[in-house]
Structures are given as C-alpha cells and as structure tokens.
Amino acid sequence: MTETASGSVTRGGKRPRKGLKMKRIFTKPGVHPYDEIQWERRDVVMTNWRDGSVNFEQRGVEFPEFWSVNAANIVTTKYFRGAVGTPQREWSLKQLIDRVVGVYTRTGIEHGYFAGDEDAEIFDHELKHALAHQVFAFNSPVWFNVGTQSPQQVSACFILSVDDTMESILEWYKEEGVIFKGGSGSGVNLSRIRSSKELLSSGGTASGPVSFMRGADASAGTIKSGGATRRAAKMVVLDVDHPDIEEFIETKAREEDKVRALRDAGFDMDLGGKDIVSVQYQNANNSVRVSDEFMRAVEKGERFGLRARLTGEVIEEIDARDLFQKMAKAAWECADPGVQYDDTINDWHTTPETGRITASNPCSEYVHLDNSSCNLASINLLKFLKDDNTFDIADFVKLTELIITAMDISISFADFPTEKIGETTRAYRQLGIGYANLGALLMATGHAYDSDGGRAVAAAITSLMTGVSYRRSAELAGVVGAYDGYARNAEPHKRVMRKHAAANDSLRTVGTMDARIHAEASHQWSECLKLGEKNGYRNAQASLLAPTGTIGLMMDCDTTGIEPDLALVKFKKLVGGGSMQIVNQTIPRALKLLGYQQEQIEAIVEYIAEHGHVVDAPGLRKEHYEVFDCAMGERAIAPMGHVRMMAATQPFLSGAISKTVNLPESATIDDIAQVYMEGWKLGLKALAVYRDNCKVGQPLSVGNGAKKEEPAAETAEPEIKVIEVNRPTRRRMPNQRPSTTTRFTVGGAKGYMTASSYPDDGLGEVFLKMSKQGSTLAGVMDAFSVAISIGLQYGVPLETYVSKFVNMRFEPAGMTDDPDIRMAASVMDYIFRRLALDYLPYDERAALGLFSAAERAAQQRGEDPAALQEAVDREALAQSAPIEEKQKPGKAAASEREPAPGQELTLESHRRFVADAPLCMTCGTKMRPAGSCYVCEGCGSTSGCS
User: Fold this and answer.
1) Which domains does the chain have, with CATH numbers?
2) Where is this region: Disordered (predicted)?
C-alpha cells in the first residue's frame, strides 16, 4: 500500500514537500521492466477488404512474445505515431509506452506527487511493467496524443450543454464537430430548449429540440464521412416531462418505417448503402431521462404532467403508462430510446451544489456535470487470477492505487476541446477507472454469470476497486490538494461515500473468493471515510464501467467491460497470416476447477470445438452447464440475467455502466417494458436494450433474400397425382474440351486445379492436385475430384456445390496468392469460390453473396454490378471464346457479408446464432458488441467513445 509522507527532496532550493512514497508491485530494484520480457520482431500487413490490396504495412515491429498477433496489429496500426516508412515512425511497443509514461512521470515530478526521485522511478517502472504485460490500459486518446505534437487530449468522454438560445444551439453544433473531428464522442440534454408547443418572445412557435436534432445529426454524419473512420458517437437526452417527449421517442422508429418503404421500392438501404444517408437521426443514441415520479405514475397507472420549459407549469397531462409503452414499442422497433434514471443518478451525485447531472457520454457510463470530460482506464481482471485460482487482492489494490495516481496526473497536463470543458474538468478532476475480462474471470473460476455467486464476485471486485480509488483520491488530496469544487460540495460528497460504504456493508457473500475480496473492500472503505474526513478528495468521480473496445483487444481480453463471454469458440490470428479456430482457454481451466479429469476435459473441449456449446457434452454434468453460458448461442443468458449483474455492481460505481441488454428477436414490447421497469427498481443509472434483427438496414442477411412461396390453398377434394420420376442420366464429357488450369496457394499450401467445360458451356469436370502422387492427400483429392465431376455430369448444379463448400473451415487456411481471393477458410472454400466466380452467372452468385472486386467497386460507386458482368460477357463473346476460359477482371472472393471470407459467417453458424452487428467502416470485418457500442476485432475500431 502506498504511503503519504514528507520527503527530503527539494526543487530549486525550495522547502521540502509532501509526496507519495511508492512501493513496488511487479518490478525489482535495479532491473528495468523491459529487461525481463522476451521481445520479438513481427511484420504487420493489413489488406483492404474490398479488393485485397495492402492498405497498411510495417515490418519489423517489436512486441513481447506473449502478445497476440491481433493485439500487436491493432497497436501498430492505431497507436504508433509518425509517418509510415520514415525514421520518425514508432516501431516498438517500448517506444509507445515510453512516450506516454514519460509524460506522466515528468508531470508527476513537476507537480509534487512523489516524495523523492526513487518514488518517481518506481512509479515509472511499475506503469511500464503493467502496460507491457497487458495488466491495464489507458483509453485510446492517451495512446493517440500523449507525448506527441498534437494537443494532449486524454479524455474519451464528453458532456456538453445547450440553452434555449440560437447562439447556444449553434455553439453546440460547433463543439460537437470539434469533438467528433478528434475521434471522441459527446452527449447532451436538450430539455432546456422550448418545445414545439410553446411560443417564442416574437409570438411565433418554437421549433422544438427534435428539429434541432436533425441539424446536429447531419453535421455528425458529414464529419464522419469527411475523414473519420467510424461513425460519430453521440448521445441525445430528453427529460420525460418535456412536451415534445412523444415526438422524441418515436423519431428513430419513424425513420425505420422510411427505411422499409425505400427498401421495398428498390433503394439501397443496407448499412453503408448509397441511399441510407437519406435516413435521419441515425448518428446518435437517444435516451429518455425518467424521474421517480414518472416511474411511480407508470406503476400506478396515473396521469403525468408535461411542463413548459421556461415557466415549469404543466401544459399537458398524459397517461404515464401509455407513454412508457410507447418508449418500449419504439425500442422494440429500432433499439431507441434507452432510459436514464434521473433521480437515481443525482442521488449518487458528489457535486450537486455545482449543478445537476443531466446527460451522459454516448455509451452512458460517464454521468456528471455539463461541459465536463472523463479519462478512462481499465484493468484486466484475469491477470489477477493466480495459479491456485485465488484472486490476488494485494496486487489488485496496489495496481488500482497506481492507476488512479496516473489518471489524476494526466489532468494536470491534458488539453481539452473547449475552454468550458477544460475549466470544469480541472476543477472537478473526474476519473473513470474500470475493468475488463469479468466474464472470463467468472468462467475460469467456475462461477455462472447469471448466479448469486457470479454477482457476488463481481460486486466485491467493483466495491474494492472503487473503495481503493477514493481512498487513494483522499491520499492525493493530502499531497496536492482536494479538487477545486470540493469545499462547496464537501457534505454531499461525503454523503455519497457513506452510501457506497453502506452498500458494501449490505453485500452478502456466497463463497470463499468473494468473501476474501469483500473483507478487503470493507477495510478500504473504512480507510477511505477516515482519510476523506481529514483531507477531502482529489476527484469528484473515480469509477465506471466502459465498453473497453479497442483497449480490450490491446490487452488480449476474452470479454469486454462487464460483459459475459460472447461464445465458447473463437478464431485466433496466426503469425504470417491465416487463423485457427480455438476453444476459449478459460474453459479447460474452469473444467479442472470443477473437478474433471484431464481425459474428460479433452473430450468436452473437443465436443465444444465441434458444436460450439456444451449441451450434451460427454461427461459434463448438467449442473455445470450454466458456468459456460454466453451472451449468445445455444444457452444464451436471459435478459434479466444481464440486468441483475448490472444491479449487483452499480452501487459501487461513481458513474454508470455501458452495457446493452440483448433480447431475442421473439421478445415482445412488454418484455422490453419489464426490463426498463426492473432497471429502475434495481437501482441502475442507465439502461439500453437491443432486440435482435430489429434494424432494417442490416449489414448481414441470413438468407439470400428469396421470397417464400405461399402455400397453395387447400381444395375440398385433394387430387391424387402419379408422378413419374426420371432417373438422372450422365452427360459425359467429349474427348476434347476447353479447360483452365489454376495454380493456387492457401495458407502456404500449394495446389493446382484443372476445370473443364462442355463445348456448349457449363462446367463438367474438376481435377485437383495438392501433393506428390501416391500420398494420402493426393489420393483423397483425386477421389474428391472424381466424385464432384461425376455429380456435375449427372446434373448436380454447380451452385449447389458452391453453397455447400464455400465457408467450409479447416487447415490450411489463410492468405492466398490469388489477387481475386485474398483469404480462404480452407482449400475447399477457395476452390468453390474460384469456380463460382469463373462459371456462375451474376444473378446466381449475387444470391449466394459472391461478387468480384470489380462488381464490389461498382457498388461502391453506385453503379449496377450486373451491367459490369454483361459488359464482360459481351467482350468474351466478341472474342469467340468461352467466358470460363477468360480471367474476368478484378474478381474477389469476399462477399458483402464476408469481409474476411468464411470467417464471420462460419463462426456464427458454428455458434448457432448470427451476431447482429455492423461491419467495420475501416476494414470491413464484422464487429462484435462491446458494452453499448461495437468493436472490430480485425483492426480495433469502435462505434463509440472507448
């Protein structure tokens, strides 16, 4: 534990100062943390998902040997600074960490945080060790900006404010634009703006906040398309007593109706389609601020008053239950609006004398004063699970102290996008420490996510983290002073500290693990209250739970934020390209802890690898199934399981939790209403829901879009028909036939394919060679070739083979040397993609989701891809040669649905679910949920403000 002491170090002959006495956690005196790491050089090459061209390449980058390929790729492409190919370009993780930590350490020395030079060195070494070993990570703006020539922006989350004047509204547009340009997100409450039912001073009628949302939405979309690689992240909030609340609630649902109508009329309304830009209000998350008064009126079926903005008088009364049902209906249709529980948020507010909390950041985890910001950092919980399956409480406490110290130091050197935000943040010093890998930790220790034991562990860890954070904040207040606004808010701040401590006292433990953590949390809260009474606090806010999208990948986390595991099987990228399917490594550990023998573990893991779930796994007891429940799939965690986990941890957080409660497509409007009601009763601060496939403009379609035939009407007297079935006949190939031989490489394995066609068109024969004659592989490929060829000659359509074999996954897999097909999930995946592109007409390929690169490029330009195919066919006919013999220009294997061929769809099929998530705007890979946002596992981009 760190101590506060008077040091003997002087600066420029000045009197001795107080400072922190730092103690080592992971490092050793006289040994630099980098010297204990095995480093290795790697090449990072990223390809364009549209045409397979290389869009990033940096060779010889240096990372610890235990970092995954994915983590190294993301850090290299997103966080290394300097122009690629120049001497100024960073090429080692050491350089990146040194750049960031150097600024933190120097600033800490300059502002008197440390008792002496040795303490500063310990701080420096411990930060470097923890970051290099993926024990925690700062949020992305720190890695982007700190130590560079750019403004030293360290915050990812911003809250703005808007008053009821045109000048303020236009200033809001400007401030949002500046924040979006920097790659961050912001939130705002528009409830001060007069409704469309109120008069202006000139006598006219006000436009209302929803009309001004339209302009802000267009601005966000323009800035995104003007250079950002992800959609602008923003939150718009409106109070439930605003007279325009019904219009606000239904805004995005009405736009979904527009999408349906335009789609049915033939417009391109897919996500990223050329016509989707005509849809409004799509760049923001919308949330309704509900009060306790409103929620009680909903419970009792009473009427509720909507109030004028300037006078506060009730100008209209509505049925509270009816409005609440409309909220649930809109969320059922399009996932918006979410809810924020206003009275709960402000009851836990540390600085109410300064102002109320009215809004949040885009992901709803940062809730504090208007015109403020928060910098985030997240701890990798799995790093504290020791070999004996106990949680390393002592190291967790020390690391939390270290992180809070570093985060507070960053406010001393940070730059901010607006002067108002800078003033508020420096005066209140809001921090957002959180964690990732909770789901993986629970599984590895044999705790079901939706269980009393799982919730007890999560609650105890969260309580310990926040208790240590505020205790450290009180220590910092004794060294460098309390935050500027503390004197004004001392009593309410201390009241909230007592509320946290009381919640900790009320926590009921279930097992040994959570009992030990809870005991330490109780000690930390006791010390926190004592020190806070003496020194005050350095920070108005300390903790929250963020999505941890990009930084979660940087830390090689299996799960993000507070989320459970998404699925039991995942793909791991390999050095040199390609990937392999693996069962999550926490599963064998959990099985061993649950008492299974090695032979049983191997059988269960093999079953999971094949089926993607544990149901009917050999030897696995049914009472253990729940340990392996995931967010989606065969045994998906129930929606209320997510709500209960949020409720278990919320009392121990300064802020809120970024998490979306996913519901199945079959969920009803009443199901969503129940989730919103239970969230209020259980004391959550904010809640968002998402019903699978509720959006029209989907990035991924399960089927091929073909309409189902209507069943024939029943007749009174069914007619019996005798149908004569003709036996198929074989159409043999002529002795001389046109053919094409293709040499290919898949994942380093070389092969040859000879495809022959009938003189009057149509594939009739395929021969494959991949090994020396006489080998087992050569024999298998010969037999497979004969079987396919005979099937084709007996009339089996090529598209049938393509639909069966495309996306088949096995090794070798990975990069190919075919410029048209950059990635293949297996040799069979490559072969039948090649055959489809060479022999199937455009309409049939389109139904299967297979397009050439030229066709994809045409789609991007807004042209008709079919016209391109017709032009190719005409050219081939003009040269009097079969189309199959010609190499069509720019062919590519990647379909609209599969930026990395076969990877996402195969995995989703294996998991028995389809993840309803957008495609990454940077690399085209299917993203995955991370809190209430999405993160791309291919390049690390996020849809929110991580």
Assistant:
1) 1-133 (no CATH), 157-347 (3.20.70.20), 568-629 (no CATH), 739-903 (no CATH)
2) 877-908
